[in-house]
Amino acid sequence: MSAPTASRDAASTGRLPAGSRAFRGAALASVLVLTASYVSVLDRVAGFVGGPASDVPLTGVVGSSAVVPVAVVALLAATGVAAFVRERTAIGATIALVVLGHLWYLQTTPATIGAVIDAGGVLVSDAATLLTGVSVVRMANAEAWAVGSVPAPAFLSWYLAVRRRYVASAAIGGAMLVVFVLTGDAGTLGTLVGVLGAAGAVGFGDLERRGAPIDQADALAAAFAAMAVLSLTVSVVPGGGTGGLQGPGGLGAGSGGGDTIEGAVVQSGGELQIGGSTSLSPEVRFTVESDEPGYWRTAVFGKFSGSEWYTDVGVDPWDGEVAPPPGSTESVEQVYEVESATAAMPAMNRPVELSDDVSGATQATPYGTFVYEDSLEAGDAYRVTSLRPDASPEELRQAGDEYPGRIRADFLQLPNDQPERVGELTERVTADAETPYDEAVAIERYLESEKSYSLDVERPEGNAVDEFLFEMESGYCVHYASAMTAMLREAGVPARMAAGYSTGQRVGEDRYVVRGLNAHAWVEVYFPGEGWVTFDPTPSDSRQQTRENRIETARSTGNPDVDTDESRQRDPAQFDERESDPTPSPNESTDNETDPENETEPGSEPENSTNGTDATFGDSENDDAGLLTRLPSYRAIGVWLLALFGAGALARRTGHADRFSRAVAVRRQGSGGSPREDVERAFKRLELLFAGETRPRAPGETPREYLDGVAADDERVDRVRRIYERARYGGDVSSEEAAEAVELVDALVAEERRFTRPSG
């Protein structure tokens, strides 16, 4: 009876063969694995982009996010209706879930309620965002989108799997996974798990359909292992994590290395990961002629995942129609002259005018940062006019805390799993503050005094802000700015992180040379009626000597890119040394920016430092790095384990595993036991020898019949048989006879290849 016939006969009796039951269970489990791969992405997105408890739908009722409970409900519903609901009806229900999910998203997304045209625009915009490879986290309301997106695919995929439509089930789940592969949110491991789940659903489902025996799973296991090894050794994910597609402040040719602060804060591509040890580049990026010194901003980050910052807005062509900041401002005109090619397009906050020669090729974000269509080349220049908020401390104190709804929604966001002790520390630090401005000053001063500055730090594990505040003794600008932004949000004060360059080296009354070592991150705090005001919590002690040493070292090595004609003959000590108090000083009416020159270099030890770095020019590695690089990574270990697993499954499938096992067994006599046991082990080895070289013993065939058939003319074989029969059936044998049997089998094994399979 053929396997399919057996399967049909078993099905007609209401029971499946053991192999088919196992394959069905494996196929269903694979669909669950595939579902878990994309549900976990959505759950992580929702957890990353949570906000104040009062603003996050369902948070606190179902846990850190509603994604997993909603997915579970969808799976249970699919299980319940799969037996009696037709597929056409199920597809209709899925469409209804899609519509309801998007309505949920639109209802919870600010500024879209009740506007059908705007709602359609939101959906189209978000779809385009995903298809161009931008992370889901950067969507307008990523948590609501995640919750609204999960029920439809989970329901239909599981419904089809229960009805044995495994290929269609895998296609639906796989489509969801592909979206997150394109956006980079799935990651290599998540992609691997999902792909294996889809392959398992199709493969095991096919084995069940054909009624295949259980041992045919070997080939599938080998294929899985090969896929896993390939996925882990060859990266095929186009975006993701800290890479992503280039956006505001994206990577440009000649813009410095990715292991520098400049690479982190300027070349971020819209995503900034809070990392570990880094370095600074002394090469000149541009010169600025400006009425006032300040921060030359390239990017603004609004969403915080706990380990990364995201720019969650798109860009539109620059049309010059920009609303000026509310409140008092000062107009600052800047002329930027590019010295090395870059996609970064700096401008002081907030730009309202741009020179005509570049405006046609420039895009702008709602945050007031520029993106040039290609890259700016050495020799290019452009003019910007900015209206910088210029409120006094008293005006900022009187600004109050009546924040617009959109500001609250976008800039009070914190991860749902933010550790409580961050909020508790914030309460202690701001206990005496009476206004949001006073809270900002208190947090800024706390970070300046409690943490030391160093570029040589371990990468934070878990929540980077929590790690920096409670576990790390030092950090650099990204750590400081992240911590202050998160603490302000804990206090209910809207804040965001900005990145770009600090002022640079003064080479004239109103001219500055800006190098890669000026790359910096700082904080912008929102005040009602005044706009976004700059604060900088990174300590500035001892930075001057560090910069001097860094530039002089680069000059001594003959680096041609470290100077311009204006800076080459100047003492590098001639920097803009604006030793101002926090922004602005509580007791003075001054410019509303803190010191833009707030970075130090490897090799420096700030005056308030407890553990400066001994790193030298261009070197920020830890002393133990040599040892660590010699140890295999967990990823490498995993690849080797998967490769071994796949090789084992393939060897078993092709028979090589049995042959290898037999080859080992015939050569291993073992020791210990009685002479009778020695004889039995020797005879077992003899059987294995002939099973591999001729044929195995047939069921019901006696040892005498078997050996007469495969080696009738060999006296040694006959002698071993007679000793075995006497040990087995006639009583004990002597130690000498047992030793003789073992020696004879050893000799036969040594001559293994003289035996051949009988013809016919």
TrEMBL record:
Residues 536-624 are annotated as: Disordered. PANTHER family: PROTEIN-GLUTAMINE GAMMA-GLUTAMYLTRANSFERASE. Residues 590-604 have a biased composition (Acidic residues). The chain crosses the membrane at residues 21-41, 61-85, 90-107, 113-137, 219-237. Pfam families: DUF4129 (PF13559), TgpA_N (PF11992), Transglut_core (PF01841). This is Transglutaminase-like domain-containing protein. Keywords: Membrane, Transmembrane, Transmembrane helix. InterPro entries: Bact_TGase-like, Papain-like_cys_pep_sf, TgpA-like_C, TgpA_N, Transglutaminase-like. Residues 469-539 form the Transglutaminase-like domain. It comes from Natronoarchaeum mannanilyticum. Residues 544-553, 565-581 have a biased composition (Basic and acidic residues).
